[in-house]
Amino acid sequence: MDSYSNGFSPRGEAFPAGLRVLVVDDDPTWLKILEKMLKKCSYEVTTCCLAREALDLLRERKDGFDIVISDVNMPDMDGFKLLEHVGLEMDLPVIMMSVDGETSRVMKGVQHGACDYLLKPIRMKELKNIWQHVFRKKIHEVRDIEGLEAGIEEFQMMRNGISDQSDDGFSFCGGDLNSARKRKDFDNKHDDKNFGDPSAGKRTRVVWTVDLHQKFVKAVNYMGFDKVGPKKILELMNVPWLTRENVASHLQKYRLYLSRLQKDNDIKASHGGIKQSTDATTRDQAGNIGFKNSINIKQNDAAITNFSIPGNVVVQSSNPKGHDFVVSSPDLGTKGALVSDAQEIQKATSSSGVGLNCNFGTPDLDAKYTTLSSVLPPQFSWNREHKPQIEQINVFNNLLPDLHDQIQINQETFFPNYPTPFNKERDKLTHIKVMPPHGTEFSSQNIRQQMPGENAFTLNPVQSECSTTTFNPSEPITRSAWKSSNDQVIDHILVNDLDSLNGNLILGKSSALTYLNVNFPACLLQEDCSPTFFELQNREFSDCNDPGLLSEPSTYLYDSLKFDYEYPCDPFEYPVMDQGLFIA
Amino acid sequence: MDVINQLQRQYVDFLSSLYREGLLDDQFLQIQKLQDESNPEFVNEVVTLFFEDSEKLLHNLAIALDQQLVDYKKVDACVHQFKGSSSSIGAQRVRNICVSFRTCYDAKNLEGCLRCLQQLKDEYYLVKNKLQTLFKLEQQILAAGGVIPIMG
Lengths: 584, 152
Prior knowledge:
The complex is a heterodimer.
Chain A: E1 20-24, H1 28-40, E2 44-48, H2 51-60, E3 67-71, H3 79-90, E4 94-98, H4 103-111, E5 116-119, H5 124-128, H6 131-159, H7 171-189, H8 210-223, H9 230-237, H10 244-261, E6 306-309, E7 313-316, E8 325-327, H11 342-352, E9 356-358, E10 370-372, H12 391-399, H13 401-404, H14 411-414, E11 430-434, H15 439-444, H16 461-464, H17 479-488, E12 491-495, E13 505-507, H18 512-516, H19 531-541, H20 551-564, H21 573-582
Parallel strand pairs in A: 1-2, 1-3, 3-4, 4-5, 9-13
Antiparallel strand pairs in A: 6-7, 7-8, 8-10, 11-12
Chain B: H1 2-20, H2 26-34, H3 42-65, H4 72-89, H5 92-106, H6 110-143
């Protein structure tokens, strides 16, 4: 009778045995049956009969599950909504189930990001293979980290019929890349007639400037993040030279980015957050800004001192002593890491102690860097609704004296006790205590509010347990660090031995802040940004008139965060992120 | 032994007829296969859940269709749910009624809906009855010291 158990690895063996599955179904009969079936597959099963409950569970145990299986029709929440939540917040693969197999429903499921759609009654053999979705996702994450850009090229090559064995390390994913991209692309491009040919040779390489991206975000927000398609966005953006493909591709990245924000990534200290977050790598919330621009992060020691600011302004900080800054101005797209001279820059930044690796931007955007000779282009103006007066900027100032003049930071407001750590020997650990300007407010706005509303995502767990953070210089900013800072409203910025950090301040999900141990709330990157935080930004930044880099990015960051998500946002992170990171 | 064999044969015949008549389908066999020593009452538990759920749904359906202004969405929700749960144990005929029920409420055909509801009740109680008989047979076999034959 128990014919199914023979096919599976006994307990204690490796994947896929022990796969942690969360089953959500309001039908008690099915719940029981599925539980039994999954157990027979040697999976670890948790059942839930309410979608809300399931979300709670997922949030509580951030890394507690590998995959979610959910019914489509549930009384308290539409299965598709749950699907989206899970995809965005936890980025877990989700399988939908239903007794209804109508094509339209199935399509909707796929569009919402389901990695599979099973029809009830479900057979054992269908459940046996669900592990493939988990595996596939992992592979793709790795690929993302290693360079979405490369992946894209690979993809294009494949589309052009070139052997998919051509590339290093991607060949394995080659086939998957295509299908995975299509799968991922599908919901973004479903209204794009050229879906079948997303990377047609004709696609113009778009430089997503801060302005452009802001338009994009506004359009997306206007329509509703999950409802909008590239065509509509394009219409709303009203940028004549932009094509739908451009928008579609950008949208995909944006969605990916937003979905990645919540991921818990452990920053690898050694890489100094060089790896831009993709779920896999950077657990550190520090300064995850902008898109998950994994491209930027190369796994090398070279200090990728690129910041890809959400406005796609990439500032490549280099030696304050006079290396040129490569700043990707808002007008230039940035892809992030195009660290041309990584090593050198690394050295430079090492000495300067600051390597800002803030990867944003969409990988496939052309990055054009403007090389600034240590001067931030005047076009970068912080002045926007929120002029960030980020304390951190000061930090950079010190590191990058050339920029100093350009950057004005109102220390008082944001970081009253900011000690300007970078002045001193970089090798010394300096604790920078960052006080939120409005401490109480911050705390009251504590992002960690657990789901204020249905749409509120719990902040990345990382943020939740914020407490006073003392960063251990030798480790990247870990999630807990984040947490602490968030909650406490006090960020301790620990300036590590910059050299050891490779002088990389990696912003954004990737541990940018790790290096500086600046606890930049990853708010910007996280979807959790509450409107309150947003307002806060305005308040905070009014004094900052840093001409430089990122007024745009900050704005749009806020925009995107604000409008897209109502998740609480660590107020700290916003300003800090915004400002500090963009200082080259 | 003879008694056990007899009971077992009875059991097999009975179950076969249920399959033959379309009251149960392959899914029932699947859940039987899921039962094992670690959970010897599995099928029984599942079917009991099905009974409870179904009766609740039937009750809700009756109320929904009894309203002055029938909320067909609610009807849809109930029937959909019923479809799902009946498919869980393989109650094929019940499931099929749900399919035709949908046509009725999609068309907002109250009379059709009421007819379907009646059919649903009939089929449901029929399969419930049969399943209860089946379990009794199982109990008898077990009580006699035999094992329940596995079909399929």
